[in-house]
Amino acid sequence: MKKISLFTYMAVAAAALSIAMTSCGDELKPYPWAPDNTDTSGDGEGEGARYMESLELELRGAIPSMLNYRKTDGGWAYHEYQYQRSNNIDNYAGYWTYTKNNFQFGPAFPTLYTDDNGYLGGPCNNHLFIQSKNAVLYASEELPLNNGKDSTVIVSRPEWRAVALICQAYLGHELVDFYGTIPFIDWRNNKRTYPLNYQSGPEVYKQIFADLDESIAILKERQPSESDLIRVEGTDTESTITRWRWQYWVKFANSIKLRMAMNMVDYVDPDPVYGPESKPFVAQNIAEEAVADEIGVLQLGDDDIAHHMSTHYCAIYGIAKDWHDIRLNANLENILKHFNNPLLEEWFDPNTYAIKSKRGGVIAPTGIYGVRPGLMTEDNVQPSDAAAASYANFAFLSPRHEYMDQPFLQVAEVLFLRAEGALRNWAMGGTAEQFYRDGITHVMTKYGIEQSKIDTYLNQTNLPMVGYKDYYRPEYDCDGRVTCDVKWNDSDPAELKLEKIITQKWIANFPLGSAAWTNYRRTGYPRLIPVLINNMQGVDTEMQIRRMTYTATPNNATEIAQITELLGGEQTAGTRVFWDINSTTWNKDENGHYVPNNHLN
Question: Does residue 6 have a pLDDT over 70?
């Protein structure tokens, strides 16, 4: 695999993407529509800048590239998911870990925690900005329809600008949360010359909030019909993320606002305003506005914002089943077992083949087992009795969920966001307990768990800590970290209530590792088992990785200098992003474990 450089000229980014990564013989295919970066007419803007139908095709390609996992046939591009999520974000979140150190498509993987392990640049894929540029810049203008064949038919569709801004907001805020700083405006404008100009995290957040406010206003005014939205979401039910309902684009925008507001809950800006109307750049104000909006955020009874799959394997199933590259992370196993959570047996199946100790040959009881992250693993093989002495026989996603939805933002996450907001005495339209219980009930109901089991789960108290056992490498056994129970207790300290909310939210966010990792860094919850081997500069093994790093090359010294200045710290994985405030104040207990303190009143 040739590593994708963030600093590749934008004019060739789409072409570079198509050849940069291959996995197990499966080459990247071009997206349904890519801007014409070879245009020589002088304006350099491609077909989408001139004709509305071309612009709409571009936008249709942009929407799925918020996550960049789709192929032109509608299936999931496993290699892209692996490069952008499963070999980095999903590991840091505690959901999956890898079981090989050599892949058919890329560099060796010495450990998850190594600079530079060859995968840290994976999530920073800006292809969406190329795909959506013309919709942002020109959709509000009057453009000819029918690709110019009938110049008398002129249309203007500002709603497509709104959709494109929401897509850019989604990807942009995630990349800032991952890396701390990005060249958001230069990406938007498809700047083709060095150096790219980076913005600080707060600057990008302010721009995104303004974009989302504008998008919401446009969509409420225009109210595009189902037939309109088909033009940019396609006719396939697996391709649409809103099922062609403009109200869901508004709910998506408001829910992004709520998520971002909670991310920055501890940040105080020296100039706390944003946008042309100088609105308060204050977490509580933004969150309350999103919830109070007449259309509002996602709520009970709504669909997730997701690709709802029915004919194509989800990426995490394909990567695990077909390539045997990832397995259940020990953290997800351990935490689900601590809570006696029925989702463990719903999402995963017991090992079909025996698991033997590498040294003693002792066979583990049949069960669901995860792999501790940060191992120096050996090359793996397909699960079988012959391969019993390896991690190959550990758990991966059950075939029951081979078509698991690929979510962008889930109803459960929003319920838990409102629970945390209510805990902080924000106006969320309900109580923290109500949203907490609703969040747990919603995710379990979604996966078919019986109400009686949900009721039992919600009322659990005094749960013992569960230790992690590695039946292949017993020397990797360790104590679990989670000690809280499930039942809501009004007399609990606010910090314990927050731990319960975030820990259950972490479970409900599965499989969306990006949100889970952000919440872990922001709050310290859930309390995750640390990695075994940490070779990262500036990273405390207990505190764990705080951000993704850019790869320095001979060509990007100016950009790296900008990044370092904007971060206010070294360009390492131990430097915190702007909203990562409280973790600087945490102390260690007698066991050397960090004790989160979110300074709740």
Answer: no
Residue 419 near residue 260, CB atoms below 8 Å: no
Residues 55, 453: Cα–Cα separation, whole Å: 50
Contacts of 386 (CB under 8 A, 6+ apart): none
User: Percent of the chain scored above 70 by pLDDT?
Assistant: 90
Residue 517 pLDDT greater than 50, yes or no: yes
How many beta carbons lie within 10 A of that of residue 350, not counting itself? 12
Q: What are the C-alpha distances in Å from 57 to residues 35, 132, 135, 598?
A: 10, 10, 10, 45
Q: Which long-range contacts (CB under 8 A, 24 or more apart) does 335-338 make?
A: 335/94, 335/480, 335/482, 335/503, 335/506, 335/507, 335/526, 336/507, 337/466, 338/463, 338/465, 338/466, 338/480, 338/482
Query: What's the CA gap between 327 and 99, in Å, rounded?
Result: 7
Lowest mean pLDDT of 373-387, 391-405, 542-556, name the range.
373-387
Of 285, 263, 288, the closest CA to residue 273 belongs to: 285
Phi, psi of 413 (to 5 degrees): -60, -45
Instruction: Give the pLDDT score at 78.
Output: 87
| Termini Cα distance of the chain | 50
Average pLDDT of span 20-47: 37
Cα 121 to chain centroid distance, Å, stands at 15
Element spanning 497, H or E: helix 494-509
Interacting residues of 484 by C-beta distance below 8 A, sequence separation 6+? 463, 496, 499, 500, 503
Question: Which residues make Cβ contacts (< 8 Å) with residue 399, sequence separation at least 6?
Answer: 317, 321, 349
Cα–Cα distance, 33 to 484 (Å, whole number): 49
The answer to which of 34-38, 363-367, 380-384 has the lowest mean pLDDT is: 34-38
Residue 483 pLDDT level (bands cut at 50, 70, 90): very high
Q: Find the length of the chain.
A: 601
User: Interior CA angle at 475 toward 469 and 477, to 5°?
Assistant: 25
Residue 11: the pLDDT is: 31
Give the DSSP letter of residue 397: B
Over residues 539-568, the pLDDT tens digits come to 999 999 999 999 888 888 999 999 999 999
Six-digit token string for 263: 């991310």
Note if the pTM is more than 0.90: yes
- Confidence check: pLDDT of 40 > 50: no
Average pLDDT, integer, range 267-279: 97
Q: In 10 A of CB 555, how many CB atoms?
A: 12
Find out whether 144 and 150 touch, Cβ atoms under 8 Å. Answer: yes
The sign of the torsion formed by the CA atoms of 240, 242, 246, 251 equals: negative
> What are the respective helix, strand and coil percentages of the chain, to the nearest 5?
40, 10, 50
Residue 19, pLDDT score: 27
Do residues 24 and 104 make contact, with C-beta atoms less than 8 angstroms apart? yes
DSSP string spanning 59-87? HHHHGGGGTT-B-TTSSB-HHHHIIIIIT
